[in-house]
Amino acid sequence: MESLCIVTTGGTIDKIYFDDKSDYQVGEPQIGRILQELGVAFRFDVVPVLRKDSLHITDADRELVRETIAAQPSRHVLVTHGTDSMVQTARVLESLTDRTIVLTGALNPARFRGSDAEFNIGTAVGAVQCLPPGVYIAMNGRIWNPGKVRKNVDANRFEALE
């Protein structure tokens, strides 16, 4: 893998809470810090595109993410994204057939102890290096086809569509 391109859109993974999860803002992308602390043995570039909760991502924002990825030289792209609309964004990215794109996020902010952020990022990094070109979602220790998965909000996890 040449340098990994990481496109960030915000979401829970980058949230900063100010008072017991009621008041928050989407902060700086956390993935660069996480990968540096883990001492990864590959080059990566972080391209911040949005700083939004995924419930606020619009069709125009999704097109901006798609255009940003299309403009990158890398054929391996990891996208950090909020979990609520991750599937919708993945479906828009499916038109980019010449690269391997893996979307991941977190159900708890990366700054929180016990967050799933590092685990999901690790899963996504492994997946983006091994999978053939296409678009995938890496959540809850699994790699998902965006057309066959949904977020179960009540259970706070991803699951296969029935």
Automatic annotation (TrEMBL):
Q: What is this protein called?
A: Asparaginase
Under Gene Ontology molecular function, one entry of this record is: asparaginase activity
InterPro entries registered for this protein in UniProt: Asp/glu_Ase-like_sf, Asparaginase/glutaminase-like, L-asparaginase_N, L-asparaginase_N_sf
**Regions crossing the membrane:** none
Residues at which substrate binds: S54, T83, D84
The L-asparaginase N-terminal domain extends over 4-161
Q: Which organism is it from?
A: Cognatilysobacter lacus
Q: Coiled-coil intervals in this record? A: none
A Pfam family of this chain: Asparaginase
Would you say which domain of life the source belongs to? Bacteria
